Amino acid sequence: MTRVVFQPGGHSVEAEEGVTLMQAAREAGLALENQCGGLGTCGKCKVLVLRGRVGPPGPAEMEALSRLELEQGLRLACQTRALGNRVEALVPPRSLVMEQRYQLEGASTAFRPQPPVTRRMVKVDLPALGDARSDLERLRQALTAQGVRLGEPGLDALRKLPETLRGDRGEIQALLRGSRLLDLRPPADRRPLYGLAVDLGTSKIALILTDLESGAAAETAGLMNPQLPFGEDVVSRLDYALRGKGQARRLREIVVEAVNRATRDLCGRAGIRPRDILEVSLVGNTAMHHIFLGLPLRQLAFSPYVPAVSEALDIRAADLGLETLPGAIAHLPAPLAGYVGSDHLAAVLASRLYREKGVCLLADLGTNTELALKTPQGITCCSCASGPAFEGGSLRHGMRAAEGAVEEVRITPEGEIRYSTVGGKEPLGICGSGALEALAAMREAGTVEPGGRIIPGRPGVTKEDDELGFRIARRHVRSGKPRGWVTLSQRDVRELQKAKGAVRAGIEMLLDHAGLTAADLDKVILAGAFGNYLDPASLMEIAMLPPLPLRRIVQVGNAAGVGAREMLCSMRARRRAQRLAAEMRYLELATYPRAELFFASCMLLSEEALQSFLRKWRRP
Ligand code: FES
After folding, report:
1. Domain 117-185, what fold?
2. How buried is 467 (Cβ within 10 angstroms: 0-12 exposed, 13-18 middle, 19+ buried)?
3. I need a surface site. Which of 11, 248, 298, 322 has the fewest CB within 10 A?
4. pLDDT tens digits for range 19-38
């Protein structure tokens, strides 16, 4: 018998020796992508063998996996047989079926809740002739007898007090936030105490309805940020907000309304009312944070990009227009800088970057990418304007990672172009991760030069509208009829170079600032939902990430949302986040010495070429 263990998560199963890793995964409760029915042709079920003996790669794997992937130990789960008594394999998020990928977006490190709201059972004396103390006074004295000093009562609780007190002959359940009486319930009401964690991204908003006492997520929701039509990235969003009177207010109103609508939906699914939400924790980039609070934006939009506030805030949810218990508190952790928000702080907290020994990089990838480098000297963070290409925006046939988006591309040694789409549907366009994969495949096949020029005459290369491009798949329109091709044009390649170059330049400048080089990196953590869809081997092929063994690259999903949930349920986590915010240093890339040379070098698509240029610009 063989024990097969799947990481991250440690799902494990005892199986007959010779079992395929696909079968073992199924038994262990993991559903891997399986578009070809296990024939070894779709290449969707990749896993990285970490430990133990497995059979050698067969012809199907030689064909479906790239040279780099094979070198790094990637295998097709449907073709790989476990031998010996124990095999351990790492399942990249993109090898999971969509449903399980979504679950992983909220995966988290275990934490011990220390909720901001607690419940206390109290027996209050009922009024009688000769005892005309007010109901509040009675409650106050009963709590004092339990060693609890009651401060200002909340209005929500005060309105319920007389009735609740008399309903159960003086037995009462007090919900307290510190010394503040937040709400009251009958003593038999053991419903969970709910809180809401919100990750307010430029493109997407994630909400997690959470049990404050256990820390468990009850319901989750994800929606597109309704501000998107007013600017795809932070800069254009700020530009819109500042261009006309009332436009910032409009941005605020539509996002508050979207959060409220999603909250109502979440509560409906959980069988509760929005006013049962007792606490909120909200993270986001600094622009989203300021827009949501209705803070002035001008100082944020112009150099030196100063936030109006850089400390954690506790604000009445009702003052923000949130449909929760009106007296509930919304906790907004500290933004770190004008372009590094509290979402990055939450990601640092959730990924446990601060505990890493050695040199570790956290990259939260998206329209705006935030990086944090942990060295023995501390954590330094920075922000890179990677632009909308990673979301499929600004690409000729770009689209979001929805059904029909090309998400994987390969060129076989014979020059045949293979691809797969999200949900296995007819191709409609290409998403950001698919475009990066296509670029990696083109690099590997020699279809594009290290400088980014597409080479005429190579497989798939054609000229359309006087521009060279790489044809990937027949493009279907919504009616299902093919029309034209999904192509990566020369201009698209340039857009991707700029986006990936911005990220790599950020990495190199952080390392340079610490007196280190890419060779000193011990580990990379990729965060953000987008980071989950990426193939690290492809990112190395195009020199977006420095070369590292794949086992030293960890994909953690939406770490910002997880951090927001942790801060929602744990006062300890809030204190930790405050300490981190005070200790973390911010590096401004725009004024970094020779920044433009770092950017220019990092647009190159070959590690060798990039390093030969970087050697010239690095600090001596
Ligand atoms: S399921 Fe298609 S290659 Fe493994």
Report:
1. Ubiquitin-like (UB roll) (3.10.20)
2. middle
3. 298
4. 999 999 999 888 888 878 88
